[in-house]
Amino acid sequence: MHKVLHVGPDTCSVVSKLLKEAETEAWGVEPYDIEDAGIDCKRLVHRGIVRVANIKFPLPYRDKSFSLVIVSDAVDYLSSRYLNKTLPELARVSSDGLVLFTGFPGDPKAQTTEPSRYGRPAKKRSTAWWARFFAETSLEENTQAVKRFAKAAVQDNYKPACQVFQLDSYV
Question: How many structural domains compose the chain?
């Protein structure tokens, strides 16, 4: 049984899809208000499967509660101060790894005039910036997962529209 935690916008739809997978137990953290969310999302929140929580603060889960933590479109809006707390916290609750999806620097599609839900524009950090950050916070890339992802991407002709990092959990 795999326990997966998804963190980011659209958590309800991601968790709903994961719940349909065999051998998968899915949970989520939605960092935004769900006032405009549909009834299915509100049901997931009511059942406690999805939490609405600010990811700048400690997560209400025990160490290594989840096999895998997937973070999409959630950390680009955090300042370095909060990122230093949030990513180690996300790694703390994972036992097998952390997958992080972040924006590409200089991506013309990412340049938007409307403010983000966090009230500040996304920070498009380079791969080199992330590598330094991972080293400073003792997070290491999972080289086996990186190789498997690269191989699968080539086989499926998949070209991600974002940066994808597969990280090991803290030991």
Answer: 1
Q: Which regions of the chain does DSSP assign to beta strands (E)?
A: 2-7, 24-30, 50-52, 66-72, 94-102, 163-167
Q: For residue 136, what are the domain limits?
A: 2-167
CATH of the domain at 136: 3.40.50.150
Contact assessment for residue 142 and residue 168, using Cβ atoms and an 8 Å cutoff: yes
* pLDDT at 124 (0 to 100): 83
**Which residues, at least 6 apart from 59, have a Cβ–Cβ distance to it below 8 Å?**
29, 53, 89, 90, 92, 93
Residue bearing the bigger pLDDT, 118 or 163: 163
4 backbone dihedrals φ, ψ, rounded to 5°: -120, 135
